[in-house]
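User: Quick sanity check before I run a bigger batch. Here is a single chain. Can you write out its predicted 3D structure?
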Amino acid sequence: NPFGENNGPDPTDADACHKYGISLAMEDRTDESLHWFEKAVQLEPMDVRLMNDLAVTLMRLGKLDEARTELERAGRIDPDHQDVKNNLAAVMEHINFRDLGVTPDRGQKDLDPDDDGSYRPGLFRDPNAPPKKKPKPKPKPPPVEADDGKPSPEKAAKARGEALDHAMADRIKEALPLFEKAVQLAPENPWYLSDLGVTYLRLGMLEDSQRVLLEAQKLEPEEQSIRDNLAALQQHMDHREQVKADKEAEQFANDILEVPVHTEGGKVVKVDPGVRVAGLYDDAEEDSDDDEDE
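Assistant: Done. Predicted structure follows.
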């Protein structure tokens, strides 16, 4: 076996493989150490410490792109790992020289850890040092729950809060569906019903406003704000009826002035607007005849 697994560490123990790889690396048996570092990472693929030392070995063998890939993956797992940061900076420096076709002043020895200044500190960790604690995985954001429309005080409060933001900014149309959603999620809440009733009122939907405000009043008969909203609604409804009555009276008067009152030779004679129309005042001419008889 070229890697000496028969005499080496337990191939199922990542920490043992890692320590054995370091011992080989310190003896300049880099090709052999690579195998053990790869096996250690294979056993513990999220251990940044192992990934860092595998990348260092790849650098020493001139496999710069593979080293960069390994270090970038380690950096995504633990962005604050200083050894990973240092080694990634080193490998990027060598890649830049390679891509520019420039040989560093220190030559290929730059990849030799015994050469002063060739590596950033801490490329290989002490095999006897306790391993760093694995970074805690970042908590995943909770999945977005589909709105099933079932009663939920929390969802209702959130919808009402968003609706109030719109309403206070005079975005009443945007607020309406959110108030409706709040009532759907908390149908027994009189305050949500009152808010929805006020929104209907502001949009001129008076019958809808009346319906939900009366529901709110049933739940909280003594609440003054609900009473006030109902009183305001009644004023709007009374005003609407008065306007309607005024328009009907105006139309009625116009229609009366266009009605023919008699004919002469088959021709229709219309009443002049300034002339009193017969029948508008009950028994007006009969009263006049009675006065003459007297």
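The CA atoms of residues 265 and 277 lie 20 Å apart.

User: Great, the batch can go ahead then.
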